Amino acid sequence: MPVHLFAEWMAKMEKLSAGMGSVPGPDGTTFRVWAPNANAVFVLGSFNDWVQDQDALELEGDGYWAGYVEGARPGDEYKFAIETDAKTLLRVDPYALAISTQHGNALIHEREGFDWLVPDNYRTPAFNEMVIYELHLGTFTDPPGDGQGGFESAIERLEHLQRLGINVIELMPPTEFPGMRSWGYNPTHPFAIESDYGGPDGFKQFIKAAHELGIAVIMDVVYNHLGPTDLPLWRYDGWSDNEEGGGIYFYNDWRRTTPWGDTRPDYGRPQVRNYLRDNALNWLEMYRIDGLRWDATAYIANVWGGADPEGALEEGWGLMRWINDEINERQPWKVSIAEDLRSDPTITMPTSEGGAGFDAQWDAIFVHPVRAALSERDDSSRDMTAVAQAIDHRYGPDAFSRVIYTESHDEVANGKSRVPEEITPGEADSWFARKRSTLGAALVFTSPGVPMIFQGQELLEDRWFSDDEPIDWNRLDTQAGVTRLYRDLIELRRNMHGTSRGLTGQHVTVHHVNEVDKMVAFHRWADGGPADDVVVVANFADQRHVDYEIGLPSGGTWRVIFDSDAPFYHETYEGSGSTELVANGEPCDGMEASAHIGIAPYTALILSRVD
Fold first, then answer.
1. What residues make up the domain containing 30?
2. Which helix (H) or strand (E) holds 193?
3. CB–CB of 184/266 below 8 Å?
4. Following DSSP, what letter does each residue of 495-542 receive, concatenated?
């Protein structure tokens, strides 16, 4: 190589920045890609008129190729040309942060310079104060015309969530997927934000707007499979181990199989592990989100998603532990939630004790028995013992290591409906549907755990979830009482009035279970005492009681701070009658005192100790 060309090459190499994909610099961009089976790699794009062999990348080692291209700037489109023995492959950057909607090329994205200024007092909420709202961007709002919702229209509804008391939004996956509409669990470009939602800049604006209102943002990530359709990572550099194998990013043997396609990432390959780890940290650090909810972690730990040791993926288990340790070391206040649904306590055990290190997991032991009790047509079939066990369940010493709910995207689709629709099919706004679904909401917000609702639940939304059916915001008017009920429950759950600290506490005793009258009651407390001790009484039957005896943990005055039958929740409600009572009765239900209460059908009462 002539001296002057060598000098130019050295100058470019000295400008290389760390990091994968495209990393803009002062007068150009560093490109880096992993293609271990390539003979040569070039980058081409709008900055070099798409000349394929002009800008070559140099092999750095371990299959990584890198180079610096002067004049390549944010907004430019690009692809990699990967030369193999058989042919030259044009590939989209696996680390692309944005995708051109017109051409499907990667876009160089400016990683710095966004104005993140938010109030100095913003903090990710503590686990015992979190209230999560699961949200699908495409259907959360209904913009005019034929389009779907996105970050811009969602920002306009954030004040509704703030008024409701929501302090955590969980986004169903907002990364690029095939076509215009999807649930998001079929990611094609795992680092790129869906362009139809507003791309990476729109996502940053959404996160900033949420933080300005005191609302945290967590997002779903999908590491149990990728794609499976329209997947640029498939046989990325041309290699595969067999005719069915997907190449360097995937298992190429029997371990590749998942319920969603044969695209399970190869958790044992260091470069793939780095890819997934970089993806997790990308959201937490570059986008400043507050946490991650991992989809279907059972299929990261096991080929078949169960406990069969023949299908165990030790490297998948190790990947989860490694990423969670990285998060805890770098940003320990950030949240890691698993959707595992195997009721496995090791998911939320610390890695130092052999666990996966998640902070919380979705709790199947809560949702299924509670939904069953709400949707049973006959009162006699409701299982109060199962409801009591759902309230009392936990995954270890921390009561908040579980996320509890009656509706999620999985529970309101795939052949299942919203809770009101399950109760009275075709009449989701009936008295029975309204009463029993809000009774379920009361259990969600008063049982130990992190409460979560699905978008529109506070509007008594009746339709099952579909990615092309937006929620009906007219229900803010027609179901105003239900919305107020949810707001009141959330305020009590967060102890915003200083009368319900026990709902943020670790302790619970389910002390009253009546299978005849279909009643259950439980005591919640943090340290105990006035404004801390809380007792919740739930009536699962179509029967009004005017003089029902219930045990209370101490004598003295107790006030009813919530009655789901209060007239301001619906014009047909009459109230339960009890507003304040004195616990001067004999010991009952294993408690030191007792009192008689009135309670309406299908109603929840929350009692707070006054003195």
1. 3-107
2. strand 189-193
3. no
4. TTTSS-GGGGSSEEEEEEEETTTTEEEEEEESS-STTT-EEEEEE-SS
Closest among 24, 6, 233, 31 to 112, alpha carbons compared = 24
Is 7 a domain residue? yes
Q: Is the residue at 94 inside a domain?
A: yes
Q: Residues 318, 230: contact at Cβ < 8 Å?
A: no
Which has the closest alpha carbon to 101: 183, 194, 172? 194
Of 482, 599, 610, 490, whose CA–CA distance to 554 is shortest?
610
pLDDT average, residue stretch 311-333: 98
Token couple for 384: 């109060």
Q: Tell me the per-residue pLDDT of 163-183, one tens digit each, with 9 for 90 and over.
A: 999 999 999 999 999 988 999
Q: Which helix (H) or strand (E) holds 10?
A: helix 3-14
Query: pTM score, two decimals?
Result: 0.96
Residue 442 exposed, middle or buried by CB count within 10 Å (0-12, 13-18, 19+): buried
430, HSE (Cβ side, Cα atoms, 13 Å) = 13
Residue 318 falls inside a structural domain: no
State the burial class of residue 380 (Cβ atoms within 10 Å of its Cβ: 0-12, 13-18, 19+).
exposed
> Do 283 and 292 form a contact (C-beta atoms < 8 A)?
yes
Residue 495 in domain: no
Q: 14: pLDDT confidence band, cut at 50, 70 and 90?
A: low
Kindly report the CATH number assigned to the domain that includes residue 97: 2.60.40.10
How confident is the model over 515-558, as pLDDT tens digits? 999 999 999 999 999 999 999 999 999 999 999 999 999 999 99
Q: Is 111 exposed, middle or buried (0-12, 13-18, 19+ CB in 10 A)?
A: middle
Please write the tens of the pLDDT for every residue from 22-74.
999 999 999 999 999 999 999 999 999 999 999 999 999 999 999 999 999 99
Which among 138, 128, 93 is positioned nearest to 448, based on CA atoms? 128
Match 């929620």 to its residue by tokens.
Answer: 471
Residue 503 identity (one-letter amino acid): L
Could you give the number of structural domains in the chain? Answer: 1
